[in-house]
Amino acid sequence: MFLKEKNSDRAIFEQLKSGDPQALTMLFNKYYQQLCRFAFCFIPENEVIEELTANVFINLWENRKRLQIHTGIRAYLYQAVKNQAISHLRKKKPLTHPLEDGFDFSDKKDRTPEAIYIENELNIEFVQAFQKLPPRAKLAFKLHRFDGLTYNEVADIMKISVAAVEKNITSALKILHRELAEITQTR
Question: What does the alpha-carbon distance between residue 179 and residue 121 come to, in Å, rounded to a whole number?
């Protein structure tokens, strides 16, 4: 069955439930990279997070007929990845160097060496400031700002209220602003 690219996640999920493998492919292509970046907050090992994220899609396919998703497929996938990561960490001692690879904010085309250098320096400074955030503020900020989730979706994933999400993101912004202002004043 052909699925149009503009189909909503809900329609794609319904196709998945009816056994259409193309629906799984569409969800995988749409969310795999985002979910891997999210899992990196918990486990900074690319091979492990790729496997855990792939397992989420395998489980989605295997359990498609029994699944009842009420929060939306995106929130469900993020929660499933979070659960996989937590389960993995329970089995293994957690690592202490999250986010060492930094963030990639830029478009890599047509950049000068000077622009690349400045971007790398800013990236390092941002990662250092980001690591100073409290864990819940860090997670809420990442989910909303980097992964594009709504406050409601973040609240569902983190199992907190929308007001708590707002408070965590506001706290993160204040800390980042303070830390990055200090960095720019010292240069």
Answer: 15
For residue 47, CA distances in Å to 56, 58, 89, 147 come to 15, 16, 14, 20
The pLDDT tens digits for 36-76 are 988 888 888 888 889 999 999 999 999 988 888 877 889 89
Residue range 94-113, pLDDT digits in tens: 443 444 444 555 555 566 77
Residue ranges per structural domain of the chain? 9-91, 132-186
Does domain 9-91 correspond to CATH entry 1.10.1740.10?
A: yes
35's CB contacts (< 8 A; 6+ apart) are 53, 56, 77, 78, 81
Classified by CATH at the fold level, domain 132-186 comes out as: Arc Repressor Mutant, subunit A (1.10.10)
Report the predicted TM-score, pTM, of the whole model to 2 decimal places.
Answer: 0.57
